Amino acid sequence: MPDSESHSVQIFDSLPYYDKELELYPQLKQKVEQELARQPKPPSTLHPRVPPPFELFANNPLLKAELERVEAHQPFPPLDTVRYQLPAPISNPAAEGEWAAALNNARAQLEHQRIRQTNLTLLQNYGSNAWRIQNYLLEETAKNIEKTLEDLTQLTTDVNRERKNTQTKLGSQLTSLETRWTELISGILQIEMANVALDAEVDRLNKREAEMAEML
Fold first, then answer.
1. Coiled coil located at which positions (predicted)?
2. Taking the model in full, what pTM does it have?
3. What is the torsional sign of CA 209, 212, 214, 216?
4. I need a surface site. Which of 79, 124, 170, 204 has the fewest CB within 10 A?
5. What is the rounded (10 degree) CA torsion for 149, 152, 155, 159?
6. What does R_g of the chain's alpha carbons equal in angstroms?
7. What pLDDT is recorded for position 6?
8. Containing H/E element for 71?
9. What element of type H or E holds 203?
């Protein structure tokens, strides 16, 4: 069969909206389950057309580690406050190197506070607009996803409704054909029984004719 015709052929292995034998006959359902248990297990590998799993944050080890932490339900690590402290030299009297290290730490802390102040100023001036734009983009994305979900749900409903209508129509045709087949079989049986009765009647008449011929 050509490919153009093969795509239009519909094969129905079962009509679940019409076939009720498994519900009407529990012993038949048990036999089906036993037969299915003897069948080989389905392959554990996915279909070749299924895309491979997508690895999130493959190029960002920090976000990848954070995602693994969240998936493992591990608590968030405590905030490191040591780097925000200004420890003085421990020894007394302190050496020049210890005072130099403490001074460098103080300068680093001062630079860190200056950068924080700059970032807070930038956030105060531009953060609200950036937040609004981000919220707008997220809302549009959420609307698109919801619309896609609605379309897929409606498509699924339409497909199921079409399957049910088609199977109900085919079931009615099968019921009509089965009834017609039963009537034809019954008619054939009646004809065969009538033929047997006619053969018996013919044999009886032949015997009667032979007896009458002998009497003459």
1. 135-165
2. 0.46
3. negative
4. 79
5. -130
6. 43
7. 42
8. helix 61-71
9. helix 96-215
